[in-house]
Design goal:
six-stranded antiparallel β-sheet; 8 strands; single chain; alpha+beta; 22% helix; 3 helices
């Protein structure tokens, strides 16, 4: 994916359908980015000769905003883009031409809430569990008079 700059400290990634992904993304989730083309780094070899070798670089960022696409526009994810000087020097991508592999790491808050709710339900009597089930998953539609 290619990054589109928004401000000095944020960039936007256009990803069709990402808003429908499960588990869903949330603000403050971690985003890991790796350049598709390896970053070339000068290194000295055993004989002290300067060699330019590929090096892997992983950038950790956070989701700042999520926007659902409208009118045939893809969904977009806004992430923080605050690179240190070393990362900027390695990337040499001031015009955002580089493509990145992106991995989203959802936070653990939602699964923890689900597990807490399941633990609470197991502590209820069978009649109480049935009442909760009927409330959450009604079989018959309620009649409105």
């Amino acid at each position: 994916h290619q990054l589109k700059p928004l401000t000095d400290k944020t960039v936007r990634i256009l990803i069709p359908g990402i808003m429908d992904a499960r588990p869903s993304l949330s603000i403050a989730d971690i985003v890991l980015l790796r350049p598709i083309q390896p970053v070339m780094v000068p290194q000295y070899d055993y004989y002290h000769a300067l060699q330019i070798r590929p090096n892997s670089l992983e950038i950790q960022s956070r989701i700042v905003d999520l926007k659902r696409g409208r009118n045939n526009e893809p969904d977009s994810v806004v992430i923080s883009w605050e690179l240190d000087i070393q990362q900027k020097d390695l990337l040499k991508d001031d015009h955002f031409l580089r493509q990145y592999n992106i991995r989203f790491v959802p936070n653990e808050f939602f699964p923890q809430q689900c597990n807490t709710a399941l633990g609470w339900l197991q502590g209820l009597s069978k009649a109480q569990q049935q009442n909760v089930k009927d409330l959450l998953f009604p079989v018959v539609a309620p009649m409105v008079k």
